[in-house]
């Protein structure tokens, strides 16, 4: 299954606690879309979030975020693990 890294640029007010809640919401519904959110990273100072996800395509990954909490990524890149 392809891997994707998505990037959210949310600005001020991003906290690790809030992102953990959003990630839990992703996990709750991801199976319905054949998606698996694997890890995430947060840069609180810059208000950015990075998510690593296995998904059939970028749109499936975006759909999970949209349905789970509405925080759709600004950019989604297909990546390969090295």
Characterization of the model:
The structure is a single chain. By secondary structure, the chain is an alpha+beta fold. The chain has one domain (3-79): ORF SCO4226, nickel-binding ferredoxin-like monomer (Alpha-Beta Plaits). Helices cover 30% and strands 33% of the residues. The chain has two helices and four strands. The protein has a four-stranded antiparallel sheet, covered by helices on one side. Strand 2 (36-43) and strand 3 (48-54) form a beta hairpin. The longest helix is centred in the N-terminal third of the chain and has 14 residues, at 16-29. The model has no long low-confidence stretch (mean pLDDT 96).
List the helices and strands and how they pair.
Blueprint: E1 3-9, H1 16-29, E2 36-43, E3 48-54, H2 58-68, E4 75-79
Antiparallel strand pairs: 1-3, 1-4, 2-3
